[in-house]
Amino acid sequence: MVFLSSHSDEHGTLGVILNRPIGKSLGDLDNQFKSLDFADVPVFEGGPVEREKLIVAAWQWLSEPTSFKLYFGIDLEKAKTLREENPEIQIACFLGHSGWSPGQLENELDDDAWLVHNLDHDLFSEMENENQVWKKIVGSMSDELRLLADAPENPSSN
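The chain above was modelled as a monomer; its predicted structure follows.
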């Protein structure tokens, strides 16, 4: 499940994979994060581009289930300030990102290469449950896709 964080005709599209936790927190990656109170922040595989680059994101859910304020590509000092101002701020980190050159994603969408779905609070809050989030989203889009999402990974288990 890819969350698109920016899109423009000139620069293309940038996003991160939301449902691929690497099973580590920032503190597991490097001890320097423990001193900044970020040891517990989960780390996700953000995508195949610049996998050595760490992207910090923070978000605050607003009153509507599909409305939130996003702080993407911030530094840890900004994340610390946001957390101090509002303890409800959620923070996650991504190794790498997903990206498309100008017009590339539009062409892929025209070719039906992607399923598009709105993001809501319930799904976003479950992003560490890799397969369950994907199944919920895909299964909610149509009956045919629900069959695909609910199919066993190994068809002989059916």
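Residues 44 and 103 are 27 Å apart (CA to CA).
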